[in-house]
Structure formats: C-alpha cells, structure tokens
Amino acid sequence: MTRTLLLAALALVAWPAAAQQAPEEIVLTTAVPFLQIEPDSRASGMGMAGVAVADNAYAPFWNPAGLAGQQGTEVSFTHAPWLPALGANLSYEHLSAKHGLGSLGTVGGHLTYFDLGTQTATDETGFELGTFSSYEFALGLSYGYPITENLSVGTGARFIYSNLTGGTRINNTTPTSAGTSFGVDLGVKYTGPELGLGKSSRPTVAFNLANMGPGISYVESTPGDTVLTGQPDAIPTTLRFGAALNTQLDDFNRITVALDLNKIIVNRDAATGEYDPFYEALFTSWESRLVKTSTIAGETCTTLGEDDDPDNDCREVSGLRSLTLGTGLEYWYNDLFAMRAGYFYEDPANGNRQFLTFGTGLRYSLVGVDISYIYALQENSPLADQLRFSLLLNIPR
C-alpha cells in the first residue's frame, strides 16, 4: 500500500473538509472526524443546532447536561447513507439510550459506527495487492445531574477505535495499525425564568466541550520517513455554545427557536506539523493564522506576502473565522407532528459548508420517527441530498 493510499483513506472521512474550499483556507483536519457528525434527525433538521435543546436520548452527543431531569428510559437509532453525492459506499449508524435514576440524575450511553466500505491496496506501480475494510466506532457513557431546578451539569467519556488501513503495510515494509483514543465531555445547561409569551415561554443557554483527549496514530515512525510518522493526529475537540427559546403558544401549538456557535479546538504548528495538546489548543486555536491565498502547488506560508505579489501571498486570518453557526426553527402540533427548518453557515476560509436543512417528526404512543434533509447552497457539494432517519422508542416502567 502506498503513502498516497493511506493519506487518501485518512482524507476520505474528513467531514468539514468535504465541503468546497477557497484557496485562502484555515481548515485543520483531524483524525476520526466521524465524531463530529450530528446523530439525530431532529437537530440536523434545525440547522445542526442542538446543544440547548438536548432533551432526549441523543443528549450524550450534544450536551450531557441535557440528560439531567430526563426520566424514564428511551432508546434511539439513526441511520444515514453518508455523502451520497460522492457516490461513495459510506454509512453512518448511531445507537443511543438514556435511563432516569430519579433524584440521582440520568445516565446515557451511545455507540457510533462509521463504515467506510472496502478499499483496494496497491503498490507504488499501481499493482493491486488486495482489499481491506475500513471502519471506525466510538462507545461512550454519559451522566447528567440537576444542580438546581434551572441549572444542570453533565459529563461523559468515550472509547474511540479507528481502523482505516486494515493493517496493510506501506511500501510493503512499514506496518499500519488501528488507532485508539478516548474523549471526555463536559456540559452545562441553564433554563431561564418564564418570559410570559404565549401559555409558557422559557429561554435556555448551554455549553459543551466534547472530545477532550489524546491524539491518534496509525503508523509507527521509521528512519528517513518524512511523509508518515508515528506523530499522533488530534481528535476533534469541539466547543459548543447554544441558546434556545421554547414557547408553548396554547394547548396544541409549540415553537422552538435555537442557535448554536461551534468551534473545533485544534491547533497545528505550520513548521513541525505537530498538534497542540487539547488543553493548549483551548487557547491557541483562537489565534490568527497565516494562510496561502495563491493556488500554486507546493507553496507554503511562513511570512506575510506583499500586495504587489498576488501569486505568492500569505494573509493573516482570524481564528474567529473558524466558528460555525447553526440556527433553526421547530413547530409541534399537539406533540404528535413536527416540522423543522434551519440554516448552517461556515466561513469560506474554514470549509465553506453552507446549506439549508429541513425535517419532520412524528410521535405516537411510545414511538417517534424523525427525518432530516440537507439542501446544499453550493453546486457540486458532497453534502447535497444528505438524509438522516431516526427512530426513538420510549420504554415504559
């Protein structure tokens, strides 16, 4: 298997990098980007806004503090054919559950599986050496506890396994292996006082810092290897801020408006290629970066360019441009039928994902079904026509 094939396998799963990018970009790819895929069709139908509306079995992903106050037992499952516009045989599966412990809080668990299909290994001449399967999964537990009637906190941890290469050797010499890591989450959720809109209206603000943990390595260092080393790649530590307003208009009609701001807490040294530890990236990921504005292959940025040299320019780009915004609206009729819509924006310098989302939901007795759809705003976007299907089951006591 060549270096090229391994690098292609690593790039294949890049979720933010799958969007169209401008020459001037600050995109920092990470290992295991499948951890960033939103698992539930409810929030993904609301512009990917979920940190402040996490109130079901999907709370371990969005905000473990959202588990607090939830009673009973619920199991949920999501299936999504991934990036269908690319024609790739990828699929995403997510199983989640929660169980209320009364005054002791609420526990949750989840299993995420990302199938990258079958890959073909080749040597440097293009001769096929065989095939192997690529897949990744994460298994986690979460816990939420209400500190007061309005304030709750939560935490969680997950084990991460990433098998991209099937143990294939690079150039028939350097062995590769599956990568493993773990991530820890911390979340807070606060529900404000009654605003007096409609029958009932209360705002919520929330915060979640997810996937704090060490990086992943797929291959050990070898003397003279300047392309692939045992240097670990960062996992996608993610910072989420969210706000929502839930308004019960009358006995039958309810509206929720939500907004999320997200940022990947990752920073990489341009000279050495090394990632900062997540606890350093909490600060360094906000710093401005030098980015290349030209499209000349092989050029790198070390100093700012001059205005009279447009073909070899570097520009300073604020770290704030790596923030993404998701906002959405949800309408429920009699807690039986829901309609959803939303908008997601990512700066052109940071991946350029921009799309509308739509969704619907049904609840009957103990069963719920949600569906969401992405309408990409760019031509030839790999995110076009992305569907998610979610099933929820409430288990009676």
UniProtKB/TrEMBL annotation:
Signal peptide annotation: 1-19
Domain Type IX secretion system protein PorV: from-to ranges: 24-267
The keyword Transferase belongs to this UniProt entry's keyword annotation: no
SUPFAM superfamilies, A to Z: Porins
Domain of life: Bacteria
Xref: InterPro entries: PorV, T9SS_OM_PorV
Record keywords: Signal
NCBIfam families: PorV_fam, T9SS_OM_PorV
UniProt protein name: Type IX secretion system protein PorV domain-containing protein
Organism of origin: Rubrivirga marina
Source taxonomy: Bacteria, Pseudomonadati, Rhodothermota, Rhodothermia, Rhodothermales
